[in-house]
Amino acid sequence: MTRQAIVAANWKMNGNLSLVKEMVSGLKQVTLASNVNVVVCPSFPYLAAFSAESAEQSLSATICLGAQNMSEQQSGAFTGEVSSEMLTEVSAKYVILGHSERRTLYKESSTLVASKVTKALEAGLIPILCIGESEEERISDQTETVLASQIQPVIDAIGIEKFSGVVIAYEPVWAIGTGKTASPEMAQETHAFIRQYLANESQKIAQKVPLLYGGSVNRGNFEQLFAQTDIDGGLIGGASLNVDEFSVICSAA
Ligand code: PEP
Question: What global pTM score does this model have?
Answer without folding.
Answer: 0.97
